[in-house]
């Protein structure tokens, strides 16, 4: 079973998701040709996103590596990126059964009125499988592994419900969609707390500048395309050790700037493919579930955050944060993790943050900065467990390079909910495990009351 799931996951999202959505669409009553087209559009979206992300990583990676070497920014924990975590997640028994187990939990919560989200974002179930894998390799108990995965899943579904209304009202064409992805939802508490504090700082409210406002006020200078060009050129120049080296490297610097600018321009166009492909599936799924479960009104369909990562504020703030967090990681006392491979996933931090900050660029930047600083400590703390899981899973091609003490991924291990669930389940043993269960049940209770009041 584990080998079967590892093989299927090895196909990648670009192949796996079109198959899943074509089958799902047909089962819920969409004409096969239309379901196939929707699935293929989603697949094309993943291919495009992969190409653009690879373009960013392959060009930005060497420049950032040059900066780390020039300024001696080496740290002992290596950034393996999210693909390493996903591979490990489906290389243990938890990964083999995580999809049917989580879908069963989702149906149960729908039936008893503890959620209104139908999570069909099956690709991102690897997050729940990985927390289970980490707990399994730390405790040797498959029972505790599934317990941790289910607790994280329940928390994520509740968070998706709590944020659904704001998400749908902020983003265009997102009616009936929520984001049940634990990495994205881990930054919601930071957004709420930091926004509340910033709103009480005299004068900060006057910095109410969103991406569209930047375009109107600064013209070309406020365009994500131009900001990408500037940031890319800046990073390219910073890797040079002298002014002569800067002059000699002008062609490479300009190429990097144009490449980063191109990524900023292409991502919104690619996310439009996701919307076009997923919208028919979303609408038909909600109609199908409402017919089968009487009284389930106000359903949201859980979708990938890739739908909205092309928002201008997300692009601007992500690119601005990359050099800032890179340098901060070196000077933060206690941090041992240098983010490099995971930086291309920075866009996924903000899908659930923007509805809270209303797209305000300065506020979103501060939220992202605070969340990432905390995330560096989370990932530093979880790296030993992450490294143990990698070694135990024994996945081909995934290992910590020589000269490093451990490896992890900012994309997973910096997430608040993942860190909380792991330590409650493993570090605090029975007391913590009970606390984790009570936390999940408490959120379910709050959600149950909220849902009943909506009727």
Sketch the topology as an H/E string, one letter per element. HHHEHHEHHEHHHHHHEHHHEHHH
The share of residues in extended strands comes to under 5%
- Please tell me how large the radius of gyration is: 22 Å
- Residue stretches low in confidence (pLDDT < 50, at least 5 long) are none
Q: Main β-sheet: number of strands, strand sense, barrel status? A: 3 strands, parallel
Helix content: over 70%
Indicate how many domains the architecture comprises.
1
Query: Structural class of the secondary elements?
Result: mainly alpha
- Number of extended strands: 5
From the spread of the alpha carbons, the general shape counts as globular
Spatial separation of the terminal alpha carbons? 42 Å
> Largest sheet, order of strands side by side?
2-4-3
Average pLDDT reading: 84
| Number of helices, where a helix is a run of at least 4 consecutive DSSP H or I residues | 19
Q: Can you put this structure into words, describing what you see?
A:
There is one protein chain. The chain has 455 residues and is mainly alpha-helical. It has one domain (2-454). It has 19 helices and five strands. It has a three-stranded parallel β-sheet with strand order 2-4-3. The chain has a two-stranded parallel sheet with strand order 1-5. The longest helix is centred in the middle third of the chain and has 43 residues, at 250-292. The chain is globular, with a radius of gyration of 22 Å. The model has no long low-confidence stretch (mean pLDDT 84).
């Amino acid at each position: 079973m584990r080998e079967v799931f590892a093989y299927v996951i090895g196909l990648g999202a670009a192949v796996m998701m079109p198959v899943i959505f074509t089958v799902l669409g047909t089962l819920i009553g969409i004409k096969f040709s239309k379901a196939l087209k929707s699935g293929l559009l989603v697949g094309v979206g993943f291919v495009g996103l992969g190409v653009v992300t690879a373009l960013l990583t392959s060009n930005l990676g060497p420049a950032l590596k040059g900066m780390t070497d020039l300024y001696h920014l080496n740290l002992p924990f290596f950034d393996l990126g999210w693909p390493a975590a996903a591979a490990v997640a489906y290389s243990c028994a938890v990964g083999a059964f995580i999809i049917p187990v989580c879908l069963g939990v989702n149906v149960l919560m729908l039936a008893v009125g503890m959620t209104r989200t139908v999570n069909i974002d099956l690709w991102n179930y690897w997050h729940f499988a990985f927390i289970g894998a980490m707990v399994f390799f730390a405790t040797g108990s498959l029972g505790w592994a599934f317990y941790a995965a289910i607790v994280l899943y329940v928390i994520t579904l509740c968070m998706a419900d709590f944020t659904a209304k704001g998400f749908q009202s902020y983003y265009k064409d997102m009616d009936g969609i929520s984001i049940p992805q634990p990495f994205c939802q881990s930054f919601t508490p930071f957004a709420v707390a930091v926004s509340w504090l910033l709103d009480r700082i005299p004068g900060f409210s006057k910095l109410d500048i969103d991406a569209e406002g930047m375009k109107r006020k600064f013209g070309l200078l406020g365009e994500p395309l131009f900001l990408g060009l500037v940031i890319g050129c800046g990073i390219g120049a910073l890797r040079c050790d002298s002014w002569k080296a800067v002059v000699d490297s002008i062609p490479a610097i300009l190429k990097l700037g144009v490449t980063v600018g191109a990524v900023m321009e292409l991502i919104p166009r690619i996310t439009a493919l996701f919307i076009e492909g997923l919208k028919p599936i979303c609408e038909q799924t909600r109609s199908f579930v409402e017919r089968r479960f009487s009284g389930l009104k106000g359903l949201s369909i859980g979708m990938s955050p890739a739908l909205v990562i092309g928002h201008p504020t997300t692009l601007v703030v992500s690119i601005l944060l990359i050099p800032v967090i890179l340098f901060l990681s070196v000077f933060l006392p206690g941090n041992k993790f240098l983010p490099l491979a995971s930086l291309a996933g920075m866009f996924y931090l903000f899908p659930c943050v923007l509805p809270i900050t209303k797209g305000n660029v300065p506020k979103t930047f501060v939220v992202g900065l605070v969340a990432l600083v905390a995330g560096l400590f989370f990932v530093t703390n979880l790296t030993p467990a992450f490294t143990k899981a990698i070694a135990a899973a024994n996945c081909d091609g995934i290992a910590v390079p020589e000269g490093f003490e451990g490896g992890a991924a900012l994309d997973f291990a910096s997430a608040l909910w993942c860190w909380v669930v792991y330590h409650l389940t493993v570090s605090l043993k029975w007391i913590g495990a009970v606390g984790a269960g009570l936390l999940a049940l408490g959120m379910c209770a709050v959600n149950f009351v909220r849902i009943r009041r909506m009727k």
